Amino acid sequence: MATKVICIANQKGGVGKTTSAVSLAHGLVQKGRRVLLIDLDPQGQCATALGRNPEPGVFHLLTMGDSPQETTFVRSWVRTSGREALYYIPGDQQTMAAQTVLNAQNQPISAIRTSISRFFKESLHYIIFDTAPSVGGIQERAVWASDLVIVPSATEFLLSDGVSMVLLMLSILQEKKEWRGKLLGILPTFYDEQTPESAAALDDLRERFSSSILSPIHRATILRECAAEGRTILEADPLCRAAKEYQALSAHVMKF
């Protein structure tokens, strides 16, 4: 099968992007898929969530050309996660410098798609991007490089504005940049049906975005704890509700 590229994106922080990217990646691996996770966020939290250290791998991925020597060098930054069939390219603060380089060189919207094309013959089922909560070049190029986009949104008031901004970006990329991907769905996160604000925020998301809403991920203290411990939720407590919800998300993704 052809490699599917998935982007986890929102223009607001604190909505569970990294947790969702790492949990989805691990969920797909547990279902027999080979996954490459690429951390496009300068905070480098994907590596931390996997129990590894941030490194400038993404900087080299985004700034190197496609010569055989450069491709060999970029591939040397692919790291094993300690989980079978789950690989990642770490990012760190140098990712910000990569964005500056891309913009200074006036690289096209297709730049990231071109950068990752070297991995399309690696028998990968999925490439997953975790992106920073901002625009400026990398997020737009990452979305354009993707076949599917998932937009996590915390079930709190005012955070749906971040969803609206991402959907506007998707629309502009489709209309003006010939993006051929699509929105897989909006993923409500930190959901707590016992909290009136959370329930109302989910109702607001459903009212505003209707059929695009995915099944919510419930708030769970263990999600914060396992990230700090370098474990995924599927390792820390695979039978808890949040783990089962991410497993269900993985199964849903595989239908596309």
Overview of the structural elements:
With 256 residues, the protein is of the alpha/beta class. It has a single domain, classed as 3-Layer(aba) Sandwich (Rossmann fold), CATH 3.40.50. The protein has helices spanning 17-30, 45-49, 57-63, 68-75, 94-104, 111-116, 138-144, 160-176, 196-209, 221-228, 233-236, 241-253, and strands at residues 4-8, 35-39, 79-80, 86-89, 126-130, 148-154, 182-189. Strands 3-4-2-5-1-6-7 form a seven-stranded mixed sheet, sandwiched between helices. Helix 1 packs across helix 12 (241-253) and helix 3 packs parallel to helix 5 (94-104). The longest helix is centred in the middle third of the chain and has 17 residues, at 160-176. It is globular.
Short description:
The chain is of the alpha/beta class. It has helices at about 15-30, 45-50, 55-65, 70-75, 95-105, 110-115, 140-145, 160-175, 195-210, 220-230, 235, 240-255, and strands at about 5-10, 35-40, 80, 85-90, 125-130, 150-155, 180-190.
List the helices and strands and how they pair.
Elements: E1 4-8, H1 17-30, E2 35-39, H2 45-49, H3 57-63, H4 68-75, E3 79-80, E4 86-89, H5 94-104, H6 111-116, E5 126-130, H7 138-144, E6 148-154, H8 160-176, E7 182-189, H9 196-209, H10 221-228, H11 233-236, H12 241-253
Parallel strand pairs: 1-5, 1-6, 2-4, 2-5, 6-7
Antiparallel strand pairs: 3-4
Helix pairs in contact: 1-12, 3-5
Low-confidence stretches: none
Arrangement of strands in the largest sheet: 3-4-2-5-1-6-7
Q: What is the CA–CA distance across the termini?
A: 12 Å
Kindly provide the name of the CATH class: Alpha Beta
Q: What portion of the residues fall into strands of 2 or more residues?
A: 5-15%
CATH topology: Rossmann fold
